[in-house]
Design goal:
- This protein is of the alpha+beta class.
- About 55% of the residues lie in helices and about 15% in strands.
- Helix 10 crosses helix 14, helix 11 crosses helix 12 and helix 12 packs across helix 13.
- The longest helix has about 35 residues.
- It is elongated, with a radius of gyration of 31 Å.
Length: about 375
Amino acid sequence: MISNQILQSTIDGLTSITHVELCVTDTEGRIVVTTMTERHNYEEAIVNFVKSAADSQELKDCQFFKIFDEQQLEYIMVVQGASENAYTIGKMATFHIQSLLVAYKERFDKDNFIKNLLLDNLLLVDIYSRAKKLHLQIDLKRVVLIVETSSGKDVNTLDMVKNSIGLTGTKEIVTAVDENSVIIVKELMDEQAEEDLEKYARSIVTYLNRENLNNVKVAYGTPVDEIKDVSRSYKEAKMALDVGKIFFEEKDVIPYSELGIGRLIYQLPLPLCKMFIQEIFAGRNPDDFDEETLTTINKFFENSLNVSETSRQLFIHRNTLVYRLDKLEKSTNLDLRVFEDAITFKIALMVVKYMKYMEAQEF
């Protein structure tokens, strides 16, 4: 349904152009929007007009027109004046508002279709038939992006995202998921467009950060060639967003194609993760390690297990670093200087992060 604000803006514009006062009422004669300064009682005349078979009628020195939404009578247009000019303006205004009703109805239908498409709520035959009805090309390359912020319900993230991408034609379909998340279904016209996805996502982040939105993250799936596969790209983008929060907290743009081992860990069942951590740490929680030990471990991994470079960056003697690594080996039976042990330890730390994230989601 078209909003009263849009209706008021429309008739204000028409009146400013034609200098003819207009009023839109419901089918019972109650005023919805008007440009008339004097309030007239048209209720009885409108009720009688609604019952008649006529689409337009001249009553009380005014022109009355019926406005239909498809076959359903939605509004009555009242045009002040009984001249031929007033009649012509009334016909034009009626046509304009009926066109708006169709456009807004289609936009609502398209939004509803996209949401159901993303959530796999449609049969294949329904996808094709509804896409055709909504003038959406079936065999066109598309990709789904999810934009998430933590700015809360007081900020209209949907409108801000639309502003950030400058919607043109049907290049993007944007829909709101909740008060913090927005989904973009973007058309990709060529191979270059696919390569520019990260730049496109980065531009959204930059714009929203400039608008003072908090913790902006954009995740996107892999491009798909048919509209029926859009839900797959959405699921990938959703996974990318979650995996990014767990393992790549510093990143604000997260492509599904660059999740690495995080993608595998994210799909592990929690009981299996707990068994693995019990096996590696023998009941000890890695969070129990002191800050010095954790800093040493992270810096050692950052420097690809290079003892000399790690000790230099930590501003400690090489022997001090060796002592810390030996101490860690005694408590975990893992020597981080040995590649296989280092890989095991690194994966274990990632599994612990994943478990903590999933447990937090349950509350």
